[in-house]
Amino acid sequence: MKKPQRLLMSIFLTYFLLITFSSCQKDEDLFTQAIDEEIEETVQEENKDDNTVDEPDTDSDTDPILDDEVSYGVLAFPSAEGAGAYATGGRGGKVLVVTTLADSGEGSFRWAVQQSGPRTIVFNVSGEIELRSSIVLNGSEHSNLTIAGQTAPQGGITIKGAPLQFYSVQNVVIRYLRVRPFNSQGAGEGNDAITCMGCRYVIYDHLSVSGGGDETIDFWHFGGSQSGNVTVQRVLTGESQNGGLAGGEQNPDVWRTLTYFSSHHNLSIHGYNRMPSNAAGGTHEYVNNLIGNWKFKLISAECNARVNQINNYYRPGATSNTSKGNGLNMLSVKSGHDVKVYASGNYYEGMNFANQDNRDGWTITINGQAVSPPNPWESYFQSSPFSIEGVPVTVTSASEAVNDVTGDVGANKYLKADGSYGTWQDDLDKEYISDFLNDTYTNCKGCSGFVWYDGGSYAYPNIPTNQRSSDYDSDLDGMADIWEMANFGTLNTGANDDADQDGYTNLEEFLNMVDR
């Protein structure tokens, strides 16, 4: 990636010698081998000779981090897994820099996200953005979007006051963002915190979402369009009426299907119901999630859904219903429906009946009437998981997932000028994690152990407001100048160039430093 003239001259000389002394087919093989060896040798030599820069790094005491990794089989980002892992987001599009916390106007989040065409949104400011109305994207012209919350300085970005709503958009990547749709008086709107209807190829990673007047996150059909190929990973949700909705209303029509959906390594706490609800059809997987202090149903599988429930950890709270039926999972079958479940490795704290056989964590209803096992089991439970598109999810045991997920969930990282990252969580996320680990309810304000924002007083945590200096990213290409100079030797490289030819743009290489 450094000293391109020297590398090109070496390649040219190698090629000249080969075509002088070799024959046609052999030339091609030798040329390819020689080029690979020359590139590797040159890059290694340059990394040894010149892996620091003279300009001091104001964010870190260490040298800037060089991007010396090459990636193949391009994912949304290196740690992307599940059905939405191949979402392209705003790759190759324009870079829009958020410079103000104002609700609207040039430089605002609303101004950036509502533009059309491929785009990546980066932030030169941290703090709270209080929306006066919902941000709505409606139509394919708003597709191909990356929201890179990790680019904000310490404190990150909190969207408050109103929800985010996406309709008929494709290829959406959102990372390291907090969405808490309360207004300054603490009252939430009746909408979901983040809605995505008729959306395909979507991945949410390291979000912190709370205060949905209905669901925290949902995916529906829209106007005859399916949603599908969706991943929600490392997301921390809490204090909403319902957890989530995967699919449209209870109708088996194919166009209402959420085709492929992955929910893995998430923490959801203090939700009333739908943790989540699988309406409509499609193949959905729930892997290594942590669920705490729910009120009623966990997973509800309906219509023609195919559900993998694998190695999740369920920790009930003071008001959780832990009986079969409405307390745990519901498999609901109606005439003409064909719903099936694979359940394995899930752990229900204090509920041995469900741990001995995970199928006992489910209640089966046929046309609204509960039926008793074992007769229905063969018809509705699989002995092996359903296949799903995308990238296989890394799976640990349910008990191992507790430390894994609580140690890395929610909007918890921000990039520094040298390409390293810092960690920071707001007090609300810290309390949610503590509530799960310690079986406590520090956020509860007189609501008898069950936390939902409408049952108690909600207070926003203090979010620091920081602004990047003008020389942090002087050319406004989304890459910090210090990191850019260290990796490319110039600020003239384009955000959409691909210096190492691995499929990730130069800008994405910088954004993906949080995956190291």
UniProtKB/TrEMBL annotation:
<feature type="region of interest" description="Disordered">
    <location>
        <begin position="42"/>
        <end position="65"/>
    </location>
</feature>
<dbReference type="InterPro" id="IPR011050">
    <property type="entry name" value="Pectin_lyase_fold/virulence"/>
</dbReference>
<dbReference type="InterPro" id="IPR052063">
    <property type="entry name" value="Polysaccharide_Lyase_1"/>
</dbReference>
<dbReference type="GO" id="GO:0046872">
    <property type="term" value="F:metal ion binding"/>
</dbReference>
<keyword id="KW-0325">Glycoprotein</keyword>
<dbReference type="InterPro" id="IPR012334">
    <property type="entry name" value="Pectin_lyas_fold"/>
</dbReference>
<keyword id="KW-0479">Metal-binding</keyword>
<keyword id="KW-0732">Signal</keyword>
<feature type="compositionally biased region" description="Acidic residues">
    <location>
        <begin position="52"/>
        <end position="65"/>
    </location>
</feature>
<feature type="signal peptide">
    <location>
        <begin position="1"/>
        <end position="25"/>
    </location>
</feature>
<protein>
    <recommendedName>
        <fullName>Pectate lyase</fullName>
    </recommendedName>
</protein>
